[in-house]
From TrEMBL:
GO terms for cellular component: mitochondrial nucleoid; nucleus. InterPro entries: ApaG_domain, ApaG_sf, Hemimethylated_DNA-bd_dom, Hemimethylated_DNA-bd_sf. GO terms for biological process: DNA repair; error-free translesion synthesis. It comes from the Eukaryota. It comes from Denticeps clupeoides. Its main location: mitochondrion. This is Polymerase delta-interacting protein 2. SUPFAM superfamilies: ApaG-like, YccV-like. SMART domains: YccV-like. Keywords: DNA damage, DNA repair, Mitochondrion, Nucleus, Phosphoprotein, Transit peptide. Interacts with PCNA and POLD2. Interacts with SSBP1. Interacts with PRIMPOL; leading to enhance DNA polymerase activity of PRIMPOL. Interacts with POLH. Interacts with POLD1; leading to stimulate DNA polymerase activity of POLD1. Residues 241-366 form the ApaG domain. The lineage of its organism: Eukaryota, Metazoa, Chordata, Craniata, Vertebrata. GO terms for molecular function: DNA binding.
């Protein structure tokens, strides 16, 4: 994680300053070890980046752990989008990944002044009572390299993409391991000569190597069919963001579908949340407090310790934690909002707002056809 901070703070700034023709060696860090930023390394006299021609491995731990060369960095795109097959390192969590396809989401950011005309209605009783405007932002559906999953499991769920069972009388949930949604600014692109650079069971089912293309990994028909068939529950449409006392909370809701239970309809959503410490102070998440409003007129309050059984610590070295959860309503729409209670090292507490977000249903088209595995049952 410390290595991810080095990537985020150093590479993004320096890559933007240097010529787009300049290339930089991409490294996959040992995420379980601490990186020593004081170690002197050869630098480019122009921009201060580690010399791209330096091929010597750098030991990150006394017992002999080394950095592994995986490719060559490319300049991050300031405009446009990355194409299917683009390799990257995640700038926050540090894992290797590959882009499957982009989503164009509406970002509702309470930290910036509104610039567009599109607005979201505040749910009844939500804090703030201010109009929030949406702007288009690009996110990507990606595959995570399974070799990196053990190193990020304490900071980001690698089975966050879930769907309902394909028969109406079941409430079972299934997960597809190693899928993630990544914001455009979290992509650190690189290229490689390796024809199978990502280890994932779906990699060769979805992509094939074609040297004449840039990037050289192009979608197979199976990827297009999978995306078209499962679009309803994969689609990312809205992203909500708000910062309180240097803790930024980002929420992405997904509609999963409807099931019949005891002669009534039950609507299901999953929501992915990322907490990120933008400051220097160490804090720990202790409690969550949710309010869930249903179109049927009910208002439910949920309190509990931590999130998904954890009480994560957010520090400068490990600033982010990402998880997903689920909610069901007996109505086709509703709203959620709430707060997290965090503790400082001196024992004092403060509350961080969770931005209100809508739970909207759509035509039920749950995945009951083409699903090329692998899957994990969460029932």
């Amino acid at each position: 994680m410390a290595a991810a901070c080095v990537l985020r703070q150093g590479l993004l700034a320096t890559l933007n300053k240097c010529s787009k023709k300049q290339t930089f060696r991409a490294l996959c860090f040992d995420l379980s070890s601490r990186y020593d930023p004081t170690r002197r390394r050869p630098q480019c006299s122009t921009c201060g980046v580690v010399n791209a021609q330096q091929k010597r491995s750098v030991s990150s731990r006394p017992e002999g752990k080394v950095l592994e060369t995986v490719g060559v960095f490319e300049a991050p795109k300031q405009h446009g989008k990355y194409e299917t097959g683009q390799l990257f390192l995640h700038s926050v969590f540090g894992y290797r990944g590959i882009v499957l396809f982009p989503w164009h989401a509406r970002l509702y950011d309470r930290d910036v002044a509104p610039q567009t005309t599109e607005s979201k209605q505040e749910p009844p009783g939500a804090h703030g009572s201010k109009e929030v405007k949406g702007k288009t932002h690009t996110y990507y559906q990606v595959l995570i390299d399974t070799r990196d999953c053990p190193h990020i499991s304490q900071r980001s769920q690698t089975e966050a993409v879930t769907f309902l069972a394909n028969h109406d009388d079941s409430r079972a949930l299934y997960a597809i391991p190693g899928l993630d949604y990544v914001s455009h600014e979290d992509i650190l692109p690189y290229n490689t000569t390796d024809q199978v650079p990502i280890h994932h069971e779906l990699f060769e089912r979805f992509l094939m190597y074609k040297a004449s293309k840039v990037p050289p990994f192009v979608p197979r028909d199976t990827l297009r069919a999978w995306q078209e068939k499962n679009h309803p529950w994969l689609e990312l449409s809205d992203v909500h963001r708000e910062t309180t006392e240097n803790i930024r909370v980002t929420v992405i809701p997904f509609y999963m579908g409807m099931r019949e239970a005891q002669n009534s309809h039950v609507y299901w959503w999953r929501y992915c949340i990322r907490l990120e410490n933008m400051g220097a102070d160490v804090v720990q998440l202790r409690e969550r407090h949710w309010r869930i409003f249903s179109l049927s007129g009910t208002l439910e309050t949920v309190r509990g310790r931590g999130v998904v059984g954890r009480e994560p610590v957010l520090s400068k070295e490990q600033p982010a934690f990402q998880y997903s959860s689920h909610v069901s309503l007996q109505a086709p729409s509703g709203h959620m909002w709430g707060s997290y209670r965090l503790e400082r090292p001196n024992g004092t507490f403060f509350d961080v707002r969770i931005p209100p977000f809508s739970l909207e249903s759509k035509k039920d088209d749950s995945p009951n056809g083409f699903l090329p595995g692998p899957f994990t049952s969460l029932a």
